[in-house]
Design a protein that fits this description.
two-stranded antiparallel sheet; 22% helix; 6 helices; alpha+beta; 8-stranded antiparallel sheet; 206 residues
Length: 206
C-alpha cells in the first residue's frame, strides 16, 4: 500500500531542518531552502556535487557566505550499493536534496535528536515547520521518504546498508508504515511560502 499522507501528517505534524545559525537570515529572507548541489552551482563549484565533505564547508554564494554541513558519517565501506550505483552517484543524490527530520511539537524523532547532538557545540539552529504546510507549498514533485538515516550508513553482520535508486521514494512507492519514515526530503529548492518557519535553538532538543 502507498504511504497514507494524512496518517503520516497526523503522526508527524512537524518537520525539523538543521542549519548553521549564519544561514538563518538568508533562508528566512529568500523563503526557501536550497540543496547543497544548488548552492554549489550558484557558487560555480559544480565539481563539489559528487565529492564527499569530510568537514563543513564555507562558500560564497551570490554575495552571501553560506555554510554547508559535513558528510563525515558517510563511508562507502558501510554501503551495499543497489541498481549499479557508485559512491559518487549516491553523494550526488544526497547533495541534490533538502533534508528534514519528522517529529511532533516536542521535537524530532530519536534519529534527529542524535543527529542534533553531534552539532551541539557548533552554533547550529533548527527550523521547525508544519508538515502539512511544507507539503502544500511543494506539491511538485512533492516529498520523498526514507526509512534510513541516509547519510550515516552502518554495517550489520558484515553487510552494508542498502543505498541506491530506491533509498528515497515518493508516497505512491513507499510501501512502509508512517512510523518507519526516518527522513523526509525534497529535491533541490524547497519553498517555505506559507510555512511559518520557527527558528529554534539546538539546545531545545539535546
Amino acid at each position: 500500500m502507498p504511504l497514507d499522507i494524512d496518517r503520516f501528517i497526523h503522526l508527524r505534524p512537524k518537520l525539523y531542518h538543521l542549519t548553521a545559525s549564519s544561514n538563518a537570515n538568508r533562508i528566512l529572507e529568500t523563503g526557501a531552502l536550497h540543496s547543497a548541489a544548488d548552492l554549489f552551482r550558484q557558487s560555480g563549484l559544480e565539481n563539489m556535487i559528487r565529492q564527499r565533505r569530510p568537514d563543513g564547508q564555507w562558500i560564497d554564494c551570490l554575495g552571501d557566505r553560506v555554510h554547508i554541513r559535513d558528510q563525515a558519517p558517510l563511508h562507502a565501506g558501510n554501503i551495499a550499493f543497489q541498481g549499479g550505483w557508485s559512491f559518487e552517484r549516491f553523494i550526488s543524490q544526497l547533495n541534490g536534496l533538502v533534508f528534514f527530520w519528522p517529529g511532533t511539537a516536542a521535537g524530532p524523532i530519536d534519529y534527529g535528536r542524535r543527529h542534533f547532538q553531534k552539532y551541539a557545540n557548533d552554533g547550529a539552529l533548527v527550523l521547525e515547520l508544519s508538515t502539512r504546510s511544507i507539503f502544500d507549498a511543494n506539491p511538485t514533485p512533492g516529498p520523498m521518504f526514507c526509512k534510513y538515516n541516509s547519510g550515516s550508513p552502518r554495517c550489520t553482520g558484515g553487510t552494508g546498508s542498502p543505498r541506491g535508486p530506491e533509498t528515497f521514494l515518493g508516497a505512491d512507492d513507499y510501501h512502509q508504515t508512517p512510523s518507519s519514515v526516518k527522513e523526509v526530503v525534497f529535491s533541490n529548492t524547497t519553498s517555505l511560502a506559507g510555512c511559518n518557519a520557527t527558528t529554534r535553538m539546538l539546545e531545545d532538543f539535546v
